[in-house]
Design a protein that fits this description.
Layout lengths: L1 H31 L5 E6 L11 E3 L10 E6 L14 E6 L7 E6 L8 E6 L2 E4 L5 E9 L5 E6 L4 E7 L7 E6 L6 E3 L13 E2 L7 E7 L12 E15 L3
Antiparallel strand pairs: 1-15, 2-4, 3-6, 4-5, 5-15, 6-14, 7-15, 8-11, 8-15, 9-10, 9-14, 10-12, 12-13
């Protein structure tokens, strides 16, 4: 009886030890999630230079933040030489603020799907914890803007979060943790047709690029169907890139 009691006690203690070990990685992982964030970068896009047209193709020259790189994806992003096309940087009056001229990314004449991302040259970005995005944007006629991210391993993901259409420019703030799920995005085609499985357990500790798309081609000027983004702010924690 004494031997059986000792054996039972040994098994019980081993079970407690196993449970403690099993919980340890989860506790350590939770402890590593940032408790606070700061502004990692802001991009407002350059206004029109003297003598330049009101609308120009979107390139790196349109960035105001020297620490950022602009990345364009999808067949609709670059301009086609023989007609008005591609993503553009527009400069015009803000209809909701008469007399104020703004510069913004605009998709109205894109011929196909497109995507835009910004890449910090020196850091990945940890988007866990209270990380958030703030932007000022305007979307028209079913062109609902969605957040896209590219992870350090090269995976591009589309957020299950979209902004509704708006008559006027609107500032929005949302937390990354509140995005319920993601879809893998084909960066060449800018669509999600090849992998239809939702991803819910995404490691956001090293995000390489952050941007947006509406998964549409442009429908022209005015209110026919297009997306515009005036500025974007990313709040998280910088993670130094290894050289």
């Amino acid at each position: 009886m004494q031997t059986k009691a000792c054996l039972g006690l040994f098994v019980f203690l081993c079970g407690l030890a196993w449970v403690a070990l099993a919980q340890q990685p989860a506790q350590n992982s939770a402890a590593q999630v940032p408790k606070s964030v700061s502004l990692v970068f802001r991009e407002t896009f350059k206004g029109r230079e003297p003598g330049a047209p009101q609308q120009v193709p979107l390139t790196d020259r349109g960035l105001t933040n020297a620490n950022l790189e602009l990345k364009l994806y999808g067949p609709g992003a670059p301009p086609v030489p023989d007609h008005e096309s591609g993503l553009a940087l527009n400069n015009e009056e803000d209809e909701g603020r008469p007399g104020e001229i703004i510069s913004y990314v605009w998709s109205g004449v894109t011929d196909d799907h497109w995507g835009v991302t910004l890449r910090d040259k020196n850091n990945y970005i940890d988007l866990r914890g209270p990380a958030k995005i703030r932007w000022r944007a305007r979307f028209r006629s079913f062109h609902n803007l969605r957040l896209i991210i590219k992870l350090a391993d090269g995976t591009m993901l589309l957020a299950d979060y979209e902004e509704p259409q708006s008559t006027y420019w609107r500032e929005t703030e949302f937390y990354i943790v509140d995005i319920p799920r993601w879809r893998v995005l084909d960066e060449k085609r800018m669509d999600v047709s090849r992998d239809r499985a939702w991803k819910t357990d995404v490691d956001l500790s090293r995000v390489d690029e952050i941007g947006f798309t509406d998964l549409n081609r442009g429908a022209g000027h005015g209110t026919e169907g297009n997306s515009g983004l005036d500025w974007i702010e990313v709040y998280g924690n910088p993670v130094t890139r290894r050289r």
